[in-house]
Design brief:
28 strands, mainly beta
Length: about 350
């Protein structure tokens, strides 16, 4: 692991190794050696937001960075920013509004890019992710990869079924999509959607052990890390035929972010506040949830046989609810032997990007 750049949050890593980054309200193109090639464009925002994005504390408190992005062609990137999805034309420096999210939703947790699935066209998907206190219906949206493709509703969870969607994974062998949901026991689960299905079908649900944000499917197993601040967390595998779970390793805390590179999965735990707190107490508390063993963010890798601890970082002193959880998010591309990791709310690496080589 070595330092790459500061205050340039990766959005997408292109297949040629170039990195699309967010920097104080602008989208930039950075070379694989860390040199800023050009400022592509500015994202739409009010002048006060542009001004505040210059300061790291405001950037964290107001959630001014894009959470996720995906490349749909060599010069076209989708990213989420302050309640909307935008398409950025890297060649011409143009930015286009694609879709506004529902009220209260700032970003999905992830974009999912599905290709090579005979039952679905190559496409990008996201699931709605927001507080959803009213337990409204929750939708999955999709669009094909051409520049002008519209967003369409792929499927929808009925009101009261779940709070929100964490991620969508492709199960190529079974020609289906797996949807990871949360957050309460009954809402935490793995669901499937196949072509011509009217609604998602439950595979497993009802316990925090089924609550997850990242994973992958291989040989009829779902390999995943749990994401619960309430109970002990595990890296586990779920047999998709018998529905039996094997806990492979107890983790330091819940896991939100991870990335697959070659035959390895890289992921980090997050340092989160106790969900038994509410209101200002939740925002300002430094008390972590019962499912966390410490205030360390731990980076792990799984090579198909063993889970290894790669790095460990301390949460900084600022409260987690107000200034964001302590974690590392990951960015990579096909055929690369390294991953970029971006530090959030962690001592010494907050706002910094590092390169993890494999």
């Amino acid at each position: 692991m070595h330092f790459f750049f500061n205050r340039h949050r990766p959005v997408v890593v292109l297949n040629d190794g170039m990195v699309v980054t967010y920097h104080k309200g602008s989208i930039c193109l950075v070379s694989s050696s860390g040199i800023v090639i050009k400022n592509v464009c500015e994202l739409p925002c009010k002048p006060i937001i542009k001004f505040l994005s210059r300061f790291r504390l405001f950037e964290r408190m107001l959630r001014l960075e894009p959470r996720c992005g995906v490349c749909i062609s060599s010069n076209q990137v989708l990213l989420t920013y302050r309640g909307s999805c935008y398409r950025v034309d890297l060649k011409h420096g143009k930015v286009y509004l694609e879709i506004k999210f529902r009220e209260g939703m700032s970003n999905p947790l992830f974009f999912s890019k599905v290709s090579g699935n005979a039952s679905y066209p190559d496409q990008v998907l996201f699931g709605e992710y927001w507080g959803n206190l009213g337990k409204e219906s929750v939708r999955v949206y999709s669009r094909e990869l051409s520049d002008s493709s519209p967003w369409n509703i792929l499927t929808e969870f009925a009101a009261g079924q779940i709070t929100h969607i964490h991620n969508i994974l492709a199960d190529i062998n079974e020609q289906r999509l797996l949807i990871l949901t949360g957050d309460s026991d009954k809402e935490s689960g793995v669901w499937e959607i196949k072509p011509n299905d009217v609604a998602p079908k439950k595979i497993v649900a009802g316990k925090q052990i089924y609550r997850s944000c990242i994973g992958y499917v291989e040989d009829n197993y779902l390999y995943y890390a749990t994401d619960t601040p309430q109970e002990e967390n595990f890296f586990a595998r779920l047999c998709l035929t018998t529905l039996e779970i094997e806990k492979l390793l107890s983790l330091e805390g819940p896991v939100i972010y991870g990335s697959r590179i070659k035959n390895k999965l890289l992921f980090s735990t997050s340092v989160e506040p106790d969900t038994e707190l509410s209101g200002f107490r939740y925002l300002l508390s430094r008390r972590v949830g019962r499912g966390l063993k410490s205030k360390d963010c731990v980076v792990y890798s799984y090579d198909g046989i063993n889970v290894h601890e790669i790095n460990r970082f301390k949460k900084d002193f600022l409260p987690m609810g107000l200034f964001q959880f302590g974690c590392v998010s990951f960015y990579t591309s096909e055929n690369m032997n390294y991953v970029y990791g971006y530090g959030m709310s962690l001592n010494y690496i907050d706002g910094k990007t590092y390169k993890f080589n494999f």
